[in-house]
């Protein structure tokens, strides 16, 4: 017997954008974020940007409101809800942070579909500022993986899930991601596993640079519609047509109808 664990990356996988970039663009931190990225790793730059936004008077409530305007495709929602309804174990493994991910998932009512979220932890301090910490405290020790950023080795997490003492059954993974950080966990997958890289994104390019390095079955996807079709195919069920119009591959749910939401909608449509 084996137990299937479906692991989703968050940025550019569950959502069709990067949540750090979204906040930077929306709250006036884009130029600073770009500058920071030139001299430090992504997670460190995101932490600094958040501190700077707070210093400029941006509140946690503003960040929360902004996160709730991130569109989520109905195809992604259907894929997640269907897999959960079938009893699959869904988890998130992301280099974003707890606050961003939970805000979006709760907003769309899919938080309960996930058994675990592995990401950089965040908390709110007494001044209601968001404090983000690295998932792996590299000031104490290194995770020892040269492929991954110092704060998170996703491959490490995959190995821990596989080796967890509570896993009496053999774990099979379906791993869905897009980024460079998803390559290390892809290398840890075995022949019984599946990796679903987003086509023409860094993970896809790394995998296709040397497909022989990957033991898992490889299935690429381009947009949320394909992600839904592909995942449900692997789970051998048809997409639930009552939940979403499957013909409308470009449709995205936008949580509000204000001008910001519409601008986002147009941007995302041009991307997929
Ligand atoms: Mg990603
Ligand atoms: Zn790694």
Please outline the helices and strands:
Elements: E1 2-8, H1 19-26, H2 30-37, H3 42-55, H4 60-67, H5 74-85, E2 89-97, H6 98-107, E3 114-120, E4 122-124, E5 130-132, H7 154-163, E6 170-177, H8 183-188, E7 194-197, H9 202-209, E8 217-218, H10 224-234, H11 259-271
Parallel strand pairs: 1-2, 1-6, 2-3, 6-7, 7-8
Antiparallel strand pairs: 4-5
The chain binds magnesium ion (MG) and zinc ion (ZN).
Magnesium ion binds next to loops.
Question: What does the model show?
Answer:
InterPro entries: HAD-like_sf, HAD_hydro_PyrdxlP_Pase-like, HAD_sf, Pase_PHOSPHO-typ. Keywords: Hydrolase, Magnesium, Metal-binding. It comes from Rhynchospora tenuis. Its cofactor is Mg(2+). With 272 residues, the protein is an alpha/beta fold. It has one domain: HAD superfamily/HAD-like (Rossmann fold, 3-Layer(aba) Sandwich). The protein has 11 helices and 8 strands. A 6-stranded parallel β-sheet has the order 3-2-1-6-7-8, with helices on both faces. Strand 7, helix 9 and strand 8 form a beta-alpha-beta unit. The C terminus is likely disordered. Zinc ion binds next to helix 7. Magnesium ion binds next to loops.
Strand arrangement across the biggest beta sheet: 3-2-1-6-7-8
Q: Please tally the helical runs, counting DSSP H or I stretches of 4 or more residues.
A: 11
Largest sheet features: 6 strands, parallel
What is the tally of beta strands?
8
Helical content band: 25-40%
- Can you name the CATH architecture? 3-Layer(aba) Sandwich
Low-confidence stretches: 241-272
Percent of residues in beta strands? 15-25%
User: Averaged pLDDT, please?
Assistant: 87
CATH superfamily: HAD superfamily/HAD-like
Order of helices and strands: EHHHHHEHEEEHEHEHEHH
Secondary structure category: alpha/beta
- Give the end-to-end Cα distance, rounded to a whole number of Å: 38 Å
Protein name: Phosphatase
Active site: 9 (nucleophile), 11 (proton donor)
Pfam families: Put_Phosphatase
GO molecular function: metal ion binding; phosphatase activity
């Amino acid at each position: 017997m084996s137990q299937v664990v479906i692991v989703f990356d968050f940025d550019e996988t569950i959502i069709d954008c990067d949540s750090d970039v979204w906040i930077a663009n929306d709250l006036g931190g884009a130029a600073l974020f770009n500058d920071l990225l030139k001299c430090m790793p992504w997670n460190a730059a995101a932490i600094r940007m958040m501190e700077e936004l707070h210093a400029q008077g941006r509140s946690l409530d503003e960040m929360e409101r902004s996160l709730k305007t991130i569109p989520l495709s109905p195809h992604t929602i259907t894929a997640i809800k269907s897999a959960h309804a079938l009893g699959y174990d869904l988890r998130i493994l992301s280099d974003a942070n707890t606050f961003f991910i939970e805000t979006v998932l709760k907003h769309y009512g899919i938080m309960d579909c996930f058994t675990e979220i592995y990401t950089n932890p965040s908390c709110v301090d007494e001044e209601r500022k968001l404090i983000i910490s690295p998932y792996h405290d590299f000031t104490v020790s290194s995770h020892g993986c040269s492929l991954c950023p110092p704060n998170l080795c996703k491959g490490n997490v995959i190995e821990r899930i596989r080796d967890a003492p509570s896993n009496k059954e053999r774990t099979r993974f379906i791993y869905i991601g897009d980024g460079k950080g998803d390559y290390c966990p892809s290398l840890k997958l075995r022949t019984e596993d599946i990796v679903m890289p987003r086509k023409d994104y860094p993970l896809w390019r790394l995998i296709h640079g040397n497909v022989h390095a990957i033991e898992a079955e490889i299935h690429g996807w381009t947009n949320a519609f394909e992600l839904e079709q592909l995942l449900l195919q692997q789970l051998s069920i048809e997409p639930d047509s009552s939940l979403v119009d499957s013909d409308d591959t470009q449709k995205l749910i936008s949580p509000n109808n204000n001008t910001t939401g519409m601008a986002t909608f147009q941007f995302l449509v041009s991307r997929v």
